[in-house]
């Protein structure tokens, strides 16, 4: 049972997740020729697109089940988190066998590890929610994990479309090289 004061959050979350999934499909459709041009980058694009989609689908599914009267929010959160963990495992195995730059695999693996942490935390919270249905604090924790999924998904989508990023380590190394030169 979802606390009444959380209903608006889950309604908004479901709407945002649905919109972001739709936009992700549009981006993939429009940018597909560009992705296909670079065979080396194609697997990385698939990883980023998959991570964004999994993040948004998690938020959508949990939000919709939170709105079902008398629904099984805990079980739904466990099921979608399990699917997410299987995605992360399969993607990490795929990255391990790819013949691309090691630095790119590490960058992608870090985000996948973060997503895995969210899914493990979500599973643990949902198991506790099944034992204590209607516990508002546990539902709030699930809501915060959905926010984390949105952040991860948007960041992965940003990487996917080639949005500019600033890596602190890269910037520090560039400054150090400039000073030495």
Descriptive tags:
mainly alpha, 83% helix, 0% strand, 181 residues
Structure in words:
By secondary structure, the chain is mainly α. The chain has one domain. 83% of the residues lie in helices and 0% in strands. The longest helix has 31 residues, at 7-37. It is elongated.
List the helices and strands and how they pair.
Blueprint: H1 7-37, H2 42-67, H3 73-97, H4 102-131, H5 136-160, H6 168-180
Helix pairs in contact: 1-2, 1-5, 2-3, 2-4, 2-5, 3-4, 4-5
By DSSP (H or I, 4+ residues per run), the number of helices equals 6
What number of structural domains do the residues give? 1
Shape: elongated
- Share of residues in helices: over 70%
Q: Mean of residue pLDDT?
A: 87
SSE order, one letter for each helix or strand: HHHHHH
Largest sheet composition: none
**Class computed from helices, strands and strand pairing:** mainly alpha
Which percent band covers the strand fraction? under 5%
Computed Rg: 18 Å
Distance between the termini: 63 Å
The tally of strands reads 0
Sequence stretches where pLDDT stays below 50 over 5 or more residues: none
């Amino acid at each position: 049972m979802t606390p009444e004061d959380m209903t608006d959050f889950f309604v908004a979350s479901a709407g945002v997740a649905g919109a972001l999934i739709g936009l992700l499909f549009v981006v993939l459709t429009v940018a597909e020729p560009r992705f296909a041009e670079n065979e080396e980058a194609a697997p990385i694009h698939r990883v980023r697109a998959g991570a964004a989609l999994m993040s948004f689908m998690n938020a959508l599914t949990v939000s919709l089940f939170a709105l079902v009267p008398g629904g099984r929010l805990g079980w739904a959160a466990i099921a979608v988190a399990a699917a997410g963990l299987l995605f992360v495992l399969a993607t990490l195995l795929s990255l391990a066998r790819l013949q691309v730059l090691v630095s790119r695999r590490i960058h992608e693996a870090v985000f996948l590890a973060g997503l895995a942490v969210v899914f493990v935390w979500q599973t643990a919270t949902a198991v506790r929610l099944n034992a204590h249905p209607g516990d508002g604090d546990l539902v709030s924790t699930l809501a915060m994990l959905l926010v984390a999924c949105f952040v991860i998904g948007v960041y992965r989508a940003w990487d996917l479309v080639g949005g500019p990023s600033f890596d602190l380590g890269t910037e520090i190394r560039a400054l150090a090289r400039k000073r030495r030169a």
